[in-house]
Amino acid sequence: MGQYSGKCFCGAVEFTVTGEPVAMGYCHCESCRVWSAGPINAFTLWQPSALKVTKGADNIGTYNKTANSFRKWCKTCGGHLFSDHPPMKLVDVYAAVLPTLPFKPGIHVSYGEKMMSVKDGLPKMKDFPAEMGGSGVTLPE
Ligand SMILES: [Zn+2]
Ligand SMILES: [Zn+2]
């Protein structure tokens, strides 16, 4: 079983994830774009029990604009860490903070809100797959 270490930009917060992600891919939604200040957010979704904060737990800030996403960052450097998604009962650990995890994206979500096209041949969901509560509609690249 894999174990992968991650840390924030400054190193005040460290954590591990154990096992394998439930899903990996890219989110194009406006919330991810504006919060991350990037055109696309690379996500890895895990069971919450897979994530253990090993250093600096009291240094983690939380903001939830909606009940769907509780976004976490390091209070010292502002580096983003992960987001709890209570309705999905999953936690999104940003791929960028898991340097040793082999990132194998399988899907693009919220492509209907995209600012940047990605022609990589992966499925492009207008919002989310039906099994995740979305419309299940796919869009052209
Ligand atoms: Zn930090
Ligand atoms: Zn998003």
Main attributes?
141 residues; three-stranded antiparallel beta sheet; mainly beta; seven-stranded mixed beta sheet; binds zinc ion; 38% strand; single chain
Topology overview:
Elements: E1 3-7, E2 14-18, E3 23-27, H1 30-36, E4 41-46, E5 51-55, E6 60-66, E7 69-74, E8 80-85, E9 90-94, E10 107-109
Parallel strand pairs: 3-10
Antiparallel strand pairs: 1-2, 2-5, 3-4, 4-9, 6-7, 7-8, 8-9
This protein binds zinc ion (2 copies).
One zinc ion binds at residues 27, 29, 31-32, 41, 110.
Structure, described:
This protein has 141 residues and is mostly beta strands. Helix content is 5%, strand content 38%. The protein contains one helix and ten strands; from the N terminus they run βββαβββββββ. The strands form two sheets. Strands 6-7-8-9-4-3-10 form a seven-stranded mixed β-sheet. A hairpin with a 6-residue loop joins β1 and β2 (14-18). The longest helix is centred in the N-terminal third of the chain and has 7 residues, at 30-36. The mean pLDDT is 96. The site of one zinc ion has 6 residues, from α1.
Shape descriptor reads globular
Q: Major sheet, described briefly?
A: 7 strands, mixed
Report strand order across the widest sheet. 6-7-8-9-4-3-10
Please, what is the average pLDDT? 96
Rg from Cα: 15 Å
Distance between the termini: 35 Å
| Small molecules in complex | zinc ion
Q: Give the amount of beta strand, in percent.
A: 35-45%
Total of helices: 1
Please write the string of helix (H) and strand (E) elements. EEEHEEEEEEE
What percent of the residues sit in helical stretches (DSSP H or I)? under 10%
Name the structural class: mainly beta
Number of DSSP strands? 10
Q: Which stretches are low in confidence, meaning pLDDT under 50 for 5 or more residues running?
A: none
Counting copies of identical and different chains, the oligomeric state is single chain
